[in-house]
Design goal:
By secondary structure, this protein is of the alpha+beta class. It is built from 13 helices and 16 strands.
Length: 430
């Protein structure tokens, strides 16, 4: 891995917290992701299933974690199964975890090779009443491919039909949404790498450059700072492309006078960052562009202050809508009649700001978190309002990642990334 070793105390604590919420006499199983084929002998780069990573720190394929806190056999309360490594694998694929290295990484003492799985699992299942399966229940999930986890669950329930079944996901949604300080530090590192990429781009952008060249500048800086990739597919959108919310072609030339919206984040140690900045291709905003930019920035700053313990996500978005409505009135994009006659289910401001303002952030860019439950300290959220004006040929979105505090305003993990319009102009014209 490119990243520095993570303190195994994080994973020990995560497992302890998960097991504390399990039903009596139950076990839970977690699988690595598959390596997905492209065609012929090509594969996509491996991405670890975030749940087994969260609970073990293991970052390789063909790994299985079983937790059984009430097991009468103490050595079977935490068991990790790995693909057995050998000299051939080392030569052709590189180093894999040994049992000793797995202990160092995860804090799990009982490590088996994968060929022992059915034998050890049978011993454990004979002692358990309930099995926790790990289903993907994220509110944005849309899974068409059968995952390794799903295949294993199908096999497990067929082989052991008499056991009661419970779900791991509700426990993980709550645990993963509240970050340990080690996790916050890792997200901060991802944000710091993103900052380096952004500062590089500020020196690079000028009329005539292509969106894909800007994408290349970002990934150059990310990789040289020990990130393996973008945290998500980057959006590099000049001119009217910014009005396509998920524009990812990144294949157009940046023209003088245009604005450039960049929704980009580095990952670090599987943790995401998620930044959006909008800059003038020519180095200066027009008066109209700057007025809209500052309106978006004010909404972002005021919305951020609302992210405090106890806030409900749905109520928060209603309040942000009021802030945005006020700014759109000031910009002349809405008038009082638009607001008075609006559909409550699709308020007038949605014409120019049609997406949500915040989502959970962490191991996944759209991380785990139950949106119907009040916000808590140490949850990490994005704040990303925007105003999109196709008729004027530009869209502006600004986005930071913040940590909710016990008291006071959130802590901005992107506090060092330039965002004020005047600062952007100064850097681009220095």
């Amino acid at each position: 891995m490119k990243y520095d070793a993570i303190n195994s105390q994080l994973f020990i604590k995560n497992r302890k917290n998960f097991m504390a919420q399990m039903k009596p006499n139950s076990l839970a199983v977690f699988n690595s992701n598959d390596i997905y084929p492209v065609s012929a002998d090509s594969t996509l780069p491996f991405e670890q299933h975030r749940d087994i990573f969260f609970l073990s720190g293991v970052d390789q394929e063909e790994s299985i974690l079983i937790l059984f806190p009430d097991c009468p056999k103490e050595n079977l309360r935490e068991v990790l199964f790995l693909r057995e490594t050998n000299e051939h694998i080392a030569v052709w694929e590189g180093e894999k975890l040994t049992k000793e290295k797995a202990l160092e990484t995860s804090g799990i003492k009982n490590v088996h090779w994968l060929q022992d799985l059915e034998k050890v699992l049978a011993e454990m299942m004979a002692l358990a009443d309930t099995v926790y399966i790990n289903t993907n229940e994220h509110y944005r999930a849309n899974v068409e491919t059968e995952t390794r986890e799903a295949r294993f669950t199908k096999w497990l329930l067929n082989k052991y039909p008499a056991h009661s079944v419970a779900k791991s996901n509700p426990i993980l949604q709550r645990l993963r949404s509240v970050k340990d300080q080690i996790e916050i530090d890792l997200i901060q590192t991802a944000c710091d790498i993103t900052e380096k990429g952004f500062r590089r781009v500020l020196d690079f952008v000028k009329p005539g450059v292509w969106e894909y060249e800007i994408e290349a500048e970002f990934i150059h800086e990310f990789v040289r700072n020990r990130s393996k990739k973008f945290a998500y597919t980057p959006i590099i959108a000049s001119g009217n492309n910014a009005n396509v919310l998920h524009y990812i072609e990144n294949n157009q030339q940046c023209k003088a006078g245009d604005l450039l919206l960049m929704d980009v984040g580095a990952e670090y140690a599987n943790y995401s960052s998620d930044m959006t900045r909008t800059i003038p291709v020519s180095g200066r905003f027009s008066d109209r562009q700057k007025a809209v930019y500052n309106a978006v920035n004010r909404v972002k700053n005021d919305a951020t202050k609302m992210l405090v313990p106890g806030t409900l996500w749905a109520d928060y978005h209603v309040e942000v809508g009021k802030l945005m409505t006020s700014e759109l009135l000031g910009l002349g994009l809405l008038d009082k009649a638009d607001v008075q006659n609006e559909d409550p289910n699709w308020p007038a401001y949605k014409k120019y700001f049609m997406h949500g303002t915040s989502h959970h952030m962490g191991l996944d860019t759209h991380d785990y978190g139950l949106l119907h439950e009040p916000m808590q300290a140490n949850q990490v959220f994005t704040v990303e309002p925007g105003i999109y004006i196709p008729d004027e040929g530009f869209g502006i979105r600004l986005e930071d990642d913040v940590v909710i505090q016990e008291t006071g305003e959130p802590f901005n993990l992107m506090r060092n990334i330039p965002i004020e319009a005047d600062e952007i102009e100064d850097i681009m014209n220095k």
